[in-house]
Amino acid sequence: MDLHLRDLRFFETVAELGHMGRAAQEVGRSQPALTKCIQRLEEVIGSPLFERAGRGIRLTPVGEVLLARCRLLRAASDEVVREVRDFAQGAAGHVTLGSGPIAAEHLVPELCRAVLAEAPRVKVDVVVGPSFDLRSQLRQGKLDLLVGLAVDSDPELVSHALVEDVVVVAASRSHPVFRRRKLEMANLLDYGWALPSAHIPSRQWLDLAFSARGLPPPDVKLESGSIALLPRMVARTELLTFVSRHTLALERSADLREVKLQATTLRRDLGVTYRKAGYLSPAAERVLKLLRQKGKALFGKPA
Questions:
Q1: Are 206 and 242 in contact (CB under 8 A)?
Q2: What is the phi/psi pair of residue 251, to 5°?
Q3: Which pLDDT tens digit goes with each residue over 238-272?
Q4: Are the beta carbons of 257 and 178 closer than 8 angstroms?
Q5: The pLDDT of residue 105 is above 70
Q6: List of domains in the chain
Q7: What are the beta bridge partners of residue 9?
């Protein structure tokens, strides 16, 4: 015969009150029902659990041992219920978040702070890389969510735009480009450049912007797969670079300045992306909801 958690809970109440009638009132059962519960437990264990003590009852040594084990079982079962409830409500669990370099610098720190403030038991793993690389991992199910360039032409993915990202040409404030009275796109080719690697979308867009106007590509003197390094690399040089205004805003110490030219201004959306047919755990759903509701505000906070 198996032990039942309900019988153990009733037994614990009887043991704590030391009186069958009061215990029956406490649990909302009849006294005969509680008596049968105790008899079932005694049959399973093979020993009496209570003995008479005046007008009430008290535990036998075997009953004392069972009561101690009951308390452990109750604590464990309560913990199981809490864990499952927290998981179901998204207050616990594990989320793997991919992040493009701009979002990693400007959004992810505030996002993680907000997630942990709401749900301290959620664990967030952050994978940083170019958005187009991370999309492959997202399709394979290695990521739950991706914060980076929004996509609108992939049938496997769903994106929600969070904030506009504007990528511009920039240089140190002392750069000679700022002494030109009239600036045209061809003039930018008079200088060397520090640019992202050729496979990064912003670099590809810039190269196409020049070629679409019949111009050669920029003369790249420094190339990096880390977009975050570019402002630092050009701060004390006469190189031009191509970076997000969000990044530019944080580079005050580098003393950089935007080279304002409409033809070299890239506007795009940063958003949160997930698989259309993929499963999102309650914790991942919680992070997605937080991003959609507060992503723009979180992005605007200083890192």
A1: yes
A2: -95, 40
A3: 999 999 888 887 655 457 899 999 999 999 999 99
A4: yes
A5: yes
A6: 5-88 (1.10.10.10), 92-163+269-300 (3.40.190.10), 165-267 (3.40.190.10)
A7: none
Q: Which tokens in the block code for residue 6?
A: 């309900």
Enter the DSSP assignment of 216. Answer: P
Q: Per-residue pLDDT for 303 more than 50?
A: no
| 3-state DSSP helix/strand/coil % of the chain, to nearest 5 | 50, 25, 25
Question: What is the per-residue pLDDT for 254?
Answer: 58
Mean pLDDT of 190-208: 93
Give the separation between CA 244 and CA 2, rounded to whole angstroms: 66
Identify the helix (H) or strand (E) that includes residue 221.
strand 219-224
Give the C-alpha separation, 240 to 170, whole Å: 6
- Residue 103: phi and psi, rounded to 5, are -65, -35
Sequential DSSP letters for 156-192:
TEEEEEEEEEEEEEEEETT-GGGG-SS--GGGGGGSE
Burial class of 154 by CB neighbour count within 10 A (0 to 12, 13 to 18, 19+): middle
Residue type, 202: S
Give the residue carrying structure tokens 């005050």: 252
The C-alpha atoms of residue 38 and residue 35 are separated, in whole angstroms, by 5
Calculate the average pLDDT of the chain: 87
DSSP secondary structure of 38-98: HHHHHHHHTS--EEEETTEEEE-HHHHHHHHHHHHHHHHHHHHHHHHHHHHTTSEEEEEEE
- Please state the φ and ψ torsions of residue 57, each to the nearest 5 degrees: -135, 160
Number of residues that make up the chain: 303
Residue 50 has, within 13 A of its CA and on its CB side, a CA count of 24
**Measured distance between the N- and C-terminal CA atoms of the chain, rounded to whole angstroms:** 61
11-22 pLDDT tens trace? 999 998 999 889
